[in-house]
Amino acid sequence: MAAEAGKPDRLSNRDVAAILANVADMLQILDANRFRIIAFQNAAEAIRTLGQDIRVVHAEGKLQTISGVGKGIADALDELLTEGRVEEFDKLKEKIPPGVVEMIHIPDVGPKTAKRLWDELGITSVEELRQAAEAGRIRELKGFGAKSEQKILKGIELAAKRGDERTPLGEARPLALRLIEELIEATPEEGITRIEAAGSLRRWRETIGDVDILAISPQSQTVIEAFQKLPQVVDVAGSGETKCSVILTTGLRVDLRVVEPKHWGAALQYFTGSKEHNVQVRELAQRQGWSLNEYGLTATGAGDAAEGEQRFFAEEAELYAFLGMACPPPELRENRGEVKAAREGVLPELVRLEDIRGELHGHSTWSDGTASIAAMAEAARQRGYSYWNVADHSTGLGMVGGLDSKRLREQSDEIAALNEQWREAGEEFRLLRGTEVEILSDGALGLPDEALAELDVVVASIHSGLRQDRETITERCLKAVRNPHVDILGHATGRLIGSRPPSEIDMERILRVCAETGTVVEINAHPSRLDVNDVYARRAVELGCKIAINSDAHETSGMEMMEYGIAVARRAWLRAADVINTYPLDKMLAALKDRRGEAA
To answer: How far is CA 269 from the centre of its chain?
Structure first.
């Protein structure tokens, strides 16, 4: 449940963000203007990940310098941080019981359903919702049945199990990078000669516990003191001469360790992990007569070296080489065969960000994007892409104003005109005509086959009904995958990390049919999705599928999320050849299901 307003001097960034998010939830229930809802959601996210205390920003009169905070929200924040309450927000709360707001976070409920349950059945809390479902009262509503009640009960159970002890990668990584940048700026010149994030952040795990940062400095105490005084820090959990643990405004714990240059290699290897990977490496060292810790190697006397002899390593690659193995990329260090592959010299050459030549799933103002097709294309060109697929939503996802066949044809005129401009200018860039077509509840698609047949790239995705039972949602997806015009299966499990669990879809069956039909499987790079995950992506390629990595950008800056998708692919052991949008345009088009590219 969202935090309540209180004494201004006690409101943390997380409290303020929760209050704004709660306002957005209430506006959704009241079916308010979509852009107003988005404004509050964006402001909440910006403040939740803000790298300094919101109260300090307020005191300096700089609230509108926060990304996503316009004048209206800034005025509300000023009132909140001055008075501890906002009159406008209080009036909203009078209209909606707080338990109704809580209900919209139950999987398969959502704002419209919560409002119907409240209006028509008088349900005003999650507990009342559970009791009503168990008593069979919800099936009294038009469009609801026994299965609906079971889904709601399952959703309540899932929500109760939802933990928040780990931080999503998309939140932790920007915070850590900003912290490192500001620590460098806060120390004297040459105060830090080397610094890097380690732990699960360096391995690009989708959620993070604590953040580990390693640094080399001849002035360790100065660095530690500067670290404690950074604006993001609200509490010092522990401090010594070479180590300090702090709590950030977001609640994230960060551990800083200052090490000697000769210990850097072993320390970076040790604190990068994973625990399971390190166990394998330590056992390998022990078999060779060495004990490994974060400082280096010490001879045990069981090998050729004299007991007590020490070896230190300035680089972790030197440590791995001493043990007779290649240095596994951090993304692979999960004890999934990387130690064996490194010893045998068969580690794959993993896909890199610079290998990407274009994207096949992105949105514009024609549906729910915030930038025009021309602006999105320019952002793609600035990234060095040679193609970008306009994949606005189809009908079937009503809340975003999806395109029907008529509007799709109208959009094609704009795309054609832009492509002609680039051709005349001698620019080697092309916009592709596409769609993100909705997979409806019965597996039918949101656009007819004749409309899909005209397009360059078709992405098919499920956005609603994600709590269908395993067999139903699997068959629904398989029907779409078998459609000859569907090229890419988008964000297959439908999860949102930390807020919505994946559907119960049978991914093994889905991936096998994708391999049979030539349907490309998407890694959706948005850090809230990372869908499919690394495990499914690796399995997809093992079965013979190709992968597309897409940022699913809804604004020009959204393309910056591509690095998260690349990380998932690297964790999945993927090479550039496994990813079709590393191909030049003609080869990429020819790799699609019905080989439209050959005709082009």
So the answer is: 25
The pLDDT tens digits of the residues spanning 413-426 come to 999 999 999 999 99
List pLDDT tens digits, range 437-447: 999 999 999 99
- Position 56: which residue type? V
Q: Between β-strands 297-299 and 290-292, what pairing exists: parallel, antiparallel or unpaired?
A: antiparallel
Residue 384 and residue 428: Cα distance in Å, rounded? 10
Spatial CA neighbour of 522 closest among 473, 481, 464: 481
DSSP string, 135-199: TT-GGGSTT--HHHHHHHHHHHHHHHH---SSEEHHHHHHHHHHHHHHHHHHS-TTS-SEEEE-H
Place of tokens 């994030």: 197
Tell me the three state secondary structure of residue 257: strand
Longest dimension (CA), the chain: 81
> How far is 296 from 289, CA to CA, in rounded Å?
13
Domains of the chain: 8-161 (1.10.150.110), 167-259 (3.30.460.10), 270-344 (3.30.210.10), 353-599 (3.20.20.140)
pLDDT at 5: 58
Burial string for 432-450 (b: 16+ CB within 10 Å, else e) reads bbbbbbbbbeebebbbeee
> Given a cut of 70, is residue 4 above it in pLDDT?
no
What mean pLDDT value characterizes the chain? 92
Count the neighbouring beta carbons within 10 Å of the beta carbon of residue 404.
14
| Residue 440 to residue 402: CA distance in whole angstroms | 13
Q: Contact 452/403 with Cβ under 8 angstroms?
A: no
pLDDT of 598 reads 46
Q: Is 160 exposed, middle or buried (0-12, 13-18, 19+ CB in 10 A)?
A: exposed
- According to the 3-state scheme, what is the secondary structure of 475-536? HHHHHHHCCCCCCEECCCCCCECCCECCCCCCHHHHHHHHHHHCCEEEEECCCCCCECCHHH
- The 10s digit of each residue's pLDDT in 101-151 is 989 888 778 888 898 999 999 999 899 998 999 999 998 888 888 888 888
